[in-house]
Amino acid sequence: MTYLAASAVIALALPACSAEQEQPLAGALATPTDIDLDWRDTRPGVAGHVLEFATEEAGPYTVLRYLAPQVTHYRHPDLVPHTTFHYRLRAYRGPVSRPLQTGLPDGISFTWTDRSADEDGFLLEIRRRNSDRYDPVAVLAPNTTTTDLVTLPDEQHASYRIRAFVLGERSNTVRLTTGE
Amino acid sequence: MLARLRTLTVTTALCVTSLLAAPHAFAEVEPGGWQSVSPGHTVQERGCGQADGLTFRLTCATASGDQRAERRYATYTGGTRQFEGYFRITSLSGTRISLKQTFNESAAGPYFMLAVERGGRLYAVHGGTTLSNAGTVGATVRVNTVHQVGAEHRTYINGSLKHTYASPGGSFYDKLGAYRTNSGTGPATVEWSGIRFWRK
Fold first, then answer.
1. Where is the signal peptide (chain B) (predicted)?
2. Is the minimum CB–CB distance between B46 and chain A shorter than 8 Å?
3. Nearest Cα residue in chain B from A63
């Protein structure tokens, strides 16, 4: 019973909706029109996060970026002044595979087999030269089995993989109003 | 297990309180005195352009002539206008397709054109400025434009200011869809959603 009470006190002491320690999303105004977002998520199996924003609490939310699991910070820059922004984070999980690659005049064509039945989509992930991690570079609809990537110079000699991803639970929502 | 449930219950209560306490939300960006408006529109299909609701297709790779499928909204003169919409490119075998235009009716030409290159680069056709690389196939992108007629036209991509352009006075109108630019070519399919307008 004592433990129950302590849990309740801890939850009340934290900002609204942030008591789930797995996904505490925090935000702050770095300048009147730049918002910094930070989080930490070390749960096993988490393959990355989707960061979303909206200017109405009920949405619609727009994806800002799919981010590798090592990424724990994002700056949303040059924002609309005197506007309230809402942010939330969503973890995703899923297996990776090596796609077949075919060269194109302006990029690379990828082909793979869809072995998952319930994916929310596929991520094409890239590991650039001199990088020690894979970052999402394209988001594809469920049941997709091919895509073309128009490559930038540092993407032509990189390593690629495909992830069938499933979205997980949403984080707390961070609400901040820009100034200026 | 009980402790865990208790913690979650308290947290949920806090979330609900937060929602209830939130002030009335305004969708439009930038401060002050916006009034929602609903301008009428016509649909324009030229060449291999096909419009189906808010889905716009260029079905050919023709690199010349008028190839477009668009909505043309009603003309406005003076004041400040705001446009908001979300687009998603569902296929782009071609390149350099204009997605959104602010047309200067007084000068009989496009004044601001937001276009996409194969690969996802969003750019301003006049001047070539890169606005963002967010226009990849499958990604939903939010666009807000604020046009102070006779002063300035600002473009926000996913909430961030990406382009500012001096504006003359006169009559203007908004267009959206898929439009082959002079150096562009289809095929392309673009889906727009959440189209809203305000004035002040």
1. 1-27
2. no
3. B140
Q: Provide φ and ψ at A10, rounded to 5°.
A: -60, -45
The domain containing residue A8 runs over which residues?
Answer: 2-93+169-177
A28: helix, coil or strand? strand
Per-residue pLDDT of chain A (180 residues; tens, 9 = 90+): 333 333 333 333 333 444 444 558 999 999 999 999 999 988 899 999 999 999 999 999 999 999 999 999 999 999 999 999 999 999 999 999 999 999 988 899 999 999 998 999 999 999 998 899 999 999 999 999 999 888 888 888 899 999 999 999 899 999 999 998
What does the block give as tokens for A90?
């969503």
DSSP for B146-199, please give it.
EEETTTEEEEEETTEEEEEEE--SSEEEEEEEEEEEEEEE--EEEEEEEEEEEE
ipTM score for this prediction:
0.80
In a domain, B1, yes or no: no
Taking an 8 Å cut-off on Cβ atoms, the answer to whether A17 and B14 are in contact is yes
Q: A48 near A69, Cβ under 8 Å?
A: yes
Contact A8/B at CB under 8 A: yes
Contact A59/B at CB under 8 A: no
Q: What is the amino acid identity at position B20?
A: L
Domain identity same for A81 and A102:
no
